[in-house]
Design a protein that fits this description.
The chain is built from 16 helices and seven strands. By secondary structure, the protein is α+β, with helices and mostly antiparallel strands. The chain is globular and about 70 Å long.
Length: 391
């Protein structure tokens, strides 16, 4: 092991070894000795390496479980390497199988002018590995138009890059036909395991790099967290359920891909994401349970409202009298997530119910429960102290 002087916290030492010293031995030692540090940095460690480290370290991280197609709430790993002008890092990631279209890395080439005198080799590298020259960078923002790499190069005044792109068939977004735009957007999301995080991060705020995971997870589903400090709430959402196509009736093909979401107070978020505090994480465990059951059964979640409960109607967790769940198809347009040629992902919001509310729902239908909802109201988030709508 290299003999170096590390005097800061393990977290600070890790980033010093990663970004300043490129010390792979020390990176390995810190991650082995301090598992909490590894949990804290999560998948975003690879993004930091792409920005500031070396191909050897990128390769080691990829070989040890870090996802080369990870999106950190701002950019993908490859886009970060491109944006920072790291040609060798970008080449390494592409050799390892990074998607040349995910998050539109070609769009980031113009921004690399801050870090490199000549951005054209970066563009050529991406094109050599199959990047779509007219791929749209989708903003998911009505105030900010979608752009192609050419739009971005012209916007930033990188004339030599604009000329290179034009010579290879690049167009502005406004010059693309509707068919071209649809096909290039499809490329961006087909098979993307983090399409939900990317969409919600662009729509709301960065998604926490760490996530709740299952010790044994044949479905590969995680529960991610998006915080709203001003409101004092967090959005929990599953990621991975939509990798499993669900069985739907004829005419309901738009509901083949689904994810779950649930709002909870920030006080219910386990800061270390261990999932070991049952009073805080029972909502997370139920999200896993419902998502896993949905994958195993293959049944769709409907086009309106449905319910989920154990036969015994036991409390969902410690400190609560809720015993069942209502799953409601979200009507928020931000929760209809483009999924490339597969269509879209629909999100279903979870609401905990008391036994009496659940029985009313089962016996008389959602309409009967909705009458109570209209008069009293149902919080958007888990409120363990809310009044029972039936008793």
């Amino acid at each position: 092991m290299n003999e170096r002087s590390y005097t800061g916290t393990p977290y600070a030492n890790l980033f010093k070894a990663l970004t300043d010293l490129h010390d792979l031995d020390m990176i390995q030692k810190i991650l082995e000795d301090h598992p909490r540090v590894k949990k804290k940095v999560g998948l975003d460690l690879l993004c930091e390496a792409a920005k500031q480290s070396s191909p050897d370290i990128l390769r080691w991280l990829a070989e040890n479980g870090w996802d080369i197609n990870h999106f950190d709430g701002h950019f993908s790993v490859l886009s970060w390497a491109i944006l920072r002008g790291k040609h060798e890092n970008a080449k390494c990631l592409l050799e390892l199988g990074a998607d040349p279209n995910l998050d539109c890395p070609l769009f980031s080439v113009a921004g690399s002018k801050k870090y490199t005198d000549d951005p054209i080799p970066l563009a050529k590298l991406l094109l050599d590995y199959g990047a779509d020259i007219n791929h749209l960078f989708v903003t998911n923002n009505d105030q900010v138009p979608d752009q192609t790499a050419l739009d971005r190069a012209e916007e930033l005044g990188v004339d030599e890059l604009s000329a290179f792109l034009r010579s290879n068939g690049a167009l502005r977004a406004g010059e693309l036909s509707d068919t071209d735009a649809a096909s290039t957007e499809a490329v961006s999301t087909d098979g993307d395991k983090e399409v939900v995080s990317r969409h919600l991060a662009k729509t709301y705020a960065p998604v926490d790099p760490s996530a709740y995971t299952q010790i044994v997870s044949p479905t590969q589903i995680a529960v991610r967290v998006l915080r709203d400090d001003e409101a004092g709430l967090a959005m929990l959402f599953t990621e991975g359920l939509s990798q499993h196509e669900l069985n739907v009736p004829n005419g309901k093909e738009g509901f083949r891909f689904a994810e779950l979401l649930l709002y909870v107070p920030l006080s219910m978020i386990d800061k270390n994401y261990t999932g070991l505090d049952p009073e805080k994480t029972w909502p997370v465990q139920w999200m896993f349970k419902i998502a896993n059951y949905t994958v195993e059964s293959g049944d769709w979640l409907g086009d309106s409202v449905t319910s989920f409960a154990d036969e015994q109607l036991q409390p969902l967790g410690p400190g609560t009298r809720f015993t069942a769940w209502m799953l409601a198809l979200s009507t928020n347009d931000d929760h209809r997530i483009p999924f490339g040629s597969k269509g879209e992902i629909r999100m279903y919001q979870l609401f905990p119910l008391y036994s009496e509310e659940y029985q009313l729902f089962k016996m008389e239908g959602f309409g009967a429960l909705y009458e109570r909802l209209e008069s009293v109201g149902l919080p958007e988030y888990v409120d363990v102290d809310r009044e029972n709508l039936v008793t």
